[in-house]
Amino acid sequence: MRYLTQIFQPVITIPKNAKIKNTEITCKSQKLLLECGLIRPTTSGFFTILPLARRALDKLELLVNSCLERVQAQRISLPCLTSANLWEKTGRLDSVGSELFTIEDRHDKKYLLAPTHEEAVADLMADVGPLSHKQLPLLLYQITNKYRDELRPKHGLLRGREFSMMDLYGFHSNIQCAHNTYSQVTEVYRRLFDVLGLPVHRLVAPTGEMGGSLSHEWQLPAQAGEDSINICPSCSHVQRNGGCEKCASETDVVQTVEVGHTFILGTKYSEPLQAKCIHPDSNPSPLIMSCYGIGITRLLAASLEALSSESQIRWPKCIAPFAAIVIGPKEGSKEWSKHGLNHIEGVARKLDGILDGDVVLDDRHTLTIGKRLFLADRMGYPHIIVCGRNSSETPPRYELYTNGRREPILGDINELMDIINGVSDTQRDRSRS
């Protein structure tokens, strides 16, 4: 159990058309994350992730890790700095150069802050290889900060110059192996977005500068999105543009945020970097590669864009910073005299036991219940437990606000724990199934 006043959460109010450290406020997720003390800009395109947002990101990373375990992916950490020489060998240094942060060391050797690590991981395979076909498919992933010198960073965490990303790399002995693995990882993506409760759509996409033979974008409808897709209201088919290819009906254009991208790369990186596989009846040949990305910080912000109102955060419940908050009576009130701090802490500890330490107690007892309830709802706590006028009864009864409901559920602590525990069990089952 945590006490709210001990959490570092520098809440601010942003006037209309204001800028924070020369950063323009352009979307609701950016405004809510700033005003609720979850992030803080340092300079254009860079943000400090504050404790509550960090807690949500930690939960999201754990969820991603558990999903990737299903396909036997193994986690690694590659250096943030990549030798520019590797990017020269694959031809990407010239094609992507304007978006790269580059540096030189004291020996005039050139490096770049990698926005992605295809070259680095292919070089790793070349260094340890050649691999036997018996070792394949091999899936390696990391969740690390990446860097891109965006010309115009905007929308807060949706398009910054530093961002957290999960990048997964697959190595295969042949193209059929790559397609089989691609299908398995696709199912993992679908499962992840289903657990988060997000309506993410997969669309065929051009491979672009990444190269390869197959590519899909994963798009989440959100008003602040810079992409768009067409959704058929009749058959729910999703495509890029024009009339529906499936039923010929007119389609609705929906703004979206790209939260993931997947590729079958072929030998674009393995061949120039000499990452090879040994087959039983032939000479070593270049590994067939695939790669899969999910923007972790972008997915967090995009989920708030999709689920929140202009004034209230709504989280995917499994990644909310805390599962529940307990609000006690105002200090000095009639309810406070009968149900004071010790009783309130007892309620919070009981809830803490069933929610694995995921409870916070709002200990600003000089504020009215109404004020604290308003602020808790704005922060989007999945469960808000209020010790109000009914807490003076025998046995005490409490108000439970859940799922953004305006009308509370009234019950004693055991009844409310059963309700909360049932919801929590359902969420855990969805993530495990």
From TrEMBL:
<keyword id="KW-0067">ATP-binding</keyword>
<dbReference type="GO" id="GO:0005739">
    <property type="term" value="C:mitochondrion"/>
</dbReference>
<keyword id="KW-0030">Aminoacyl-tRNA synthetase</keyword>
<dbReference type="InterPro" id="IPR033730">
    <property type="entry name" value="ProRS_core_prok"/>
</dbReference>
<keyword id="KW-0436">Ligase</keyword>
<dbReference type="GO" id="GO:0005524">
    <property type="term" value="F:ATP binding"/>
</dbReference>
<dbReference type="InterPro" id="IPR050062">
    <property type="entry name" value="Pro-tRNA_synthetase"/>
</dbReference>
<dbReference type="InterPro" id="IPR045864">
    <property type="entry name" value="aa-tRNA-synth_II/BPL/LPL"/>
</dbReference>
<feature type="domain" description="Aminoacyl-transfer RNA synthetases class-II family profile">
    <location>
        <begin position="69"/>
        <end position="316"/>
    </location>
</feature>
<keyword id="KW-0648">Protein biosynthesis</keyword>
<dbReference type="GO" id="GO:0006433">
    <property type="term" value="P:prolyl-tRNA aminoacylation"/>
</dbReference>
<protein>
    <recommendedName>
        <fullName>proline--tRNA ligase</fullName>
        <ecNumber>6.1.1.15</ecNumber>
    </recommendedName>
</protein>
<dbReference type="InterPro" id="IPR006195">
    <property type="entry name" value="aa-tRNA-synth_II"/>
</dbReference>
<dbReference type="InterPro" id="IPR036621">
    <property type="entry name" value="Anticodon-bd_dom_sf"/>
</dbReference>
<dbReference type="Pfam" id="PF00587">
    <property type="entry name" value="tRNA-synt_2b"/>
</dbReference>
<keyword id="KW-0547">Nucleotide-binding</keyword>
<dbReference type="InterPro" id="IPR002316">
    <property type="entry name" value="Pro-tRNA-ligase_IIa"/>
</dbReference>
<dbReference type="GO" id="GO:0004827">
    <property type="term" value="F:proline-tRNA ligase activity"/>
</dbReference>
<dbReference type="InterPro" id="IPR002314">
    <property type="entry name" value="aa-tRNA-synt_IIb"/>
</dbReference>
